[in-house]
Structure formats: structure tokens, C-alpha cells
Amino acid sequence: MVDNLEQQLNELEKRIKDLKEFALLQNIDLNNEIELLEKKAFTIKQELYRNLTPWQKVQIARHNQRPTTLQYIKGIFQDFIQLHGDRYFKDDPAIVGGIARLGDTPVTVIGHQKGKDTKENIYRNFGMPHPEGYRKALRLMKQGEKFKRPIITFIDTPGAYPGLGAEERGQGEAIAKNLMEMSGLKVPIIVIVTGEGGSGGALALGVGDSILMMANSVYSVISPEGCAAILWKDATRAKEAADALKLTADDLYRLKIIDEIIPEPQGGAHKDIEKTMAAVKEGIERHLDILSGFTPDELVKRRYQRLRKIGEYLE
Predict the structure, then answer these.
(1) Separation CA 211–CA 200 (nearest Å)
(2) How far apart are CA 160 and CA 198, in angstroms?
(3) Which of 72, 90, 144, 147 is least surrounded by CB atoms within 10 angstroms?
(4) CATH number of the structural domain spanning residue 68
(5) What EC number(s) does the entry state (predicted)?
(6) Residue 308 buriedness (CB in 10 A; 0-12 / 13-18 / 19+)
(7) Are 245 and 227 in contact (CB under 8 A)?
(8) Which residues of 262-297 are buried (b: 16+ CB within 10 A; e: fewer)?
(9) Hey, how many other C-beta atoms are within 10 angstroms of the C-beta on 18?
(10) Based on the domain organization, do 47 and 62 belong to the same domain?
(11) Residue 218 phi/psi, 5° resolution?
(12) Does residue 229 share a domain with residue 93?
């Protein structure tokens, strides 16, 4: 049903574009015909995006044109200075971070970075960090705490890189240390899941005081394909796994894992970058204003309490 609607929509949008070009070229008034087609396209869009399934949201979350961390930084913050390296091994392009201003407030900004095309994705390792990426992130977080700067993290990764070199350099330890250290940082931490939040690779930047998710983002302990391969020995059952994992923003808000869902333009965040940036910036500013009212010790205590409530067993 959805595939058929998408096909109709693509065909309609092509016809509208062709009609506009033809009318301009021939100097003919085709406004009535174009308006009818645009209304039909709008109706199809409404039907297409009204009730997306979890698997469809996974596809939107993975869309290669969704805004990246560097785009969010450019669109929301001012005077960004990117910092590199973990001071142990090397720099990891899959995680970017540095110092910036949000209005008059100095902040530390960190996030996973995917590419827009094959060449950039290879350079960024498809947004899958090595241990040095997480150690770089932790170095910047500790620096932010030292200078009393709030920390903003953007999550968008399939997961931590599972290669041999990453395991030899302590991938699990690097993630675990980030979880431990972030739990005790005495500055506000705001986390935004912008696309795909996969496993511990996402969680290593995800311990915060306020956790926000874009409406079409996903956040899960494992990918639907990985879950299906483990449970049913059949990765093609990923759609079924996506339903079972409760990985959408709506699911996680209902389960009280996240604090807020940031709305997206119809069709996804990439359809209207300016509107997306405005919504994310407003959410960050609002939560930062709330968190600024707590003392450092209160922040740590609140963070501990919210972590203890996750997965809480009730009789």
C-alpha cells in the first residue's frame, strides 16, 4: 500500500514539474491543472505519512539526506570550533565535537557524523565510531565540565564499529567508561536522537538530563535486521522485529525513556531543513533553561534517579 502510494506521489510530482516547465516554455496558463495535481499530491502525502509503521520510520531515520550533526551545529549554534583527537590513538571522523555558543551560552557540542554519499560515508565509517571516537567525546565532555559548559549530544549511528581493530583497542571499555563518566558529570547534558540510535554505540553519547527524539528517529538496543537474525535466524523478518522492539519515538515516550518528541516536517527532517533546525533549537533552549535551575549535585542526583527508573519492575 505504502509503496504504491510512494510511486503515485513520485509520478505526480514529476508530472507537476514537467507541466510547470512546459507552461513556462510555451507561455501557457496551466495553473488550474497544476493546482489540481498539487492538491492530489498533498492528499497522497497526508495518507502516506499519517500512520507510518515502525519499519517505515526506520527507513526515514536512515535516509541519507537527513541532517547530520555538522548541519545541526551550523544551523543552531554560533562560533563553532571543532576539536580533534582522543590524546591516546588518533582522531575518529565518525564523531565530531567542539566548542560553540548557543546565543550567549558557551556549550560543548558532540555527535555522530554520517556521510551524504559513498565517499564521505567511507571516510566517516558510516557513522560507526571506533574506541578513539568515544574517548574523544569523553575528553570533550570532561573539558566542558571543567569550564562549566552545558553539553549537547546528537545521536545518529547504526552502532559502534564491531571490527577487530576496534575490539583490540577496547571498544567495550570505551563505551562503558562513557556511560559511567556521563552519569556523574556536574553540568547539564541534553541528548537529541536525530536519526538512528543503535545499541551501545548510541548509548555512549546518550546519558543525559533531558533526552529528546526527532519524530521519525529510532532508538534501540539492536537493529531490526540484527534482532531478526538472532531471534529467527532470518534477517528478512526485520519488519516484524521493528514492530516488536518498540524503537520509535512514540514508543519510547510512552515508556518514559525519553522526555520529548521533536516534530518533523511532513516526509522527514530533510524535507525542510530550516524548519527542522528551528524546532531542535527551540527544544534545546527550553530544556537548557529548565536544567540551569539545578545545582551540580542536583543534576547528578536527578540523572541517577531517571536511570534507575528505566526497566523498573512493578508487581
Answers:
(1) 16
(2) 8
(3) 147
(4) 3.90.226.10
(5) 2.1.3.15
(6) exposed
(7) yes
(8) bebbeebbbbebeebbebbbebbeebbeebeeeeee
(9) 10
(10) no
(11) -135, 155
(12) yes
C-alpha cell of 14? 514529476
Q: How far does the chain reach from its first CA to its final CA, in angstroms?
A: 42
| Helix intervals (H) in 91-237 | 118-123, 131-146, 164-168, 171-184, 199-203, 224-231
Q: Is 302 in the same domain as 198? A: yes
Q: How many CA atoms lie within 13 A of 47 on its CB side?
A: 14
Domain that holds residue 27: 2-51
pTM tops 0.85: yes
Q: What is the mean pLDDT of each run of 10 residues along the chain (315 residues)?
A: 56 78 78 79 70 88 93 97 96 97 96 95 96 98 97 96 95 96 97 94 95 96 92 91 93 93 89 94 96 96 90 67
Query: Quick one: cell of 145?
Result: 565540565
DSSP H or E segment with residue 220: strand 218-220
Q: 3-class DSSP state for residue 255?
A: coil
